Design the sequence.
């Protein structure tokens, strides 16, 4: 009889554990900040306008993202906000080649779907998640009420000063291989939330990533709600023109060239300053 009771209890515990794992959900809020240090020719922009542009760019790069997740899936998207007016008649064109309107990740299947609205056309980019070889460290720090551990990895990226190029950057106009540099990605994850996930395309650690820094941008979690009262919906985007990552990159390069021509200073349209800001992605 005792053996039967023990077996029954064990079976019940396994069932409860399985159900809990299936129902485990969360909503995390992240804030992003980017270093902005752009030096411009004084003949193009005076010191006062340069400072205004720096202040405005810092605000433009301060974004809020929401990560909705369960044990295997997540949806990451920017929280809607009103854009701030641009001072002094200055027109700044923000071209983000690495962002995502809605980013769905399936960490079990190691794949993602990126729904992007580019110039009024919706694209659906499907690809495999990068297989990252994280180096786990022993260093810890607290983020909110969670104890986080440090992890790093390195990757090669095209060298762009501050992660931003201004007015297209001459080097980008030349048909040559871009200069590459080694970038170290530093993440802080917490095993207290046993989810193999994080902001953006980051994943692959034994706990939710609460902070990540790539040298120019920092994304940090400001709020977490585990198993919220309201139902959490995680659905893969379906709307949009299906393209590969390579096809999407080619389309973006063509669009960037068109934008560069449109906002070229040679056209001399309008009295305000027109400055193109391109974010590498």
Sequence:
């Amino acid at each position: 009889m005792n053996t039967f009771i023990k077996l029954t209890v064990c079976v019940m515990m396994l069932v409860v554990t399985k159900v809990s794992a299936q129902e485990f959900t969360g909503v995390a809020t992240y804030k992003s900040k980017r270093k902005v240090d752009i030096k411009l020719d004084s003949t193009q922009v005076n010191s006062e306008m340069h400072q205004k542009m720096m202040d405005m760019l810092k605000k433009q790069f301060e974004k809020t993202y929401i990560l909705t997740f369960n044990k295997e899936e997540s949806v990451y998207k920017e929280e809607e906000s009103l854009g701030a007016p641009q001072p002094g008649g200055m027109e700044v064109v923000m071209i983000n080649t690495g962002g995502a309107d809605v980013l769905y990740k399936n960490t079990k299947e190691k794949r993602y779907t990126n729904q992007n609205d580019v110039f009024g056309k919706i694209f659906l980019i499907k690809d495999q998640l990068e297989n990252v070889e994280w180096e786990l460290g022993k260093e810890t720090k607290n983020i909110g009420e969670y104890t986080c551990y440090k992890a790093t990895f390195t990757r090669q990226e095209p060298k762009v000063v501050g992660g931003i190029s201004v007015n297209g950057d001459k080097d980008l106009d030349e048909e040559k291989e871009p200069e590459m540099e080694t970038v170290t990605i530093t993440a802080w994850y917490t095993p207290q939330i046993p989810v193999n996930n994080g902001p953006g395309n980051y994943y692959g650690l034994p706990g939710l990533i609460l902070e990540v820094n790539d040298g120019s941008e920092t994304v940090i979690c400001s709020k977490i709600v585990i198993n919220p009262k309201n139902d959490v919906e995680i659905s893969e985007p379906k709307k949009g023109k299906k393209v590969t990552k390579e096809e999407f990159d080619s389309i973006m390069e063509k669009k960037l060239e068109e934008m560069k021509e449109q906002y070229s200073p040679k056209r001399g349209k309008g009295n305000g300053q027109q400055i193109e800001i391109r974010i590498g992605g």
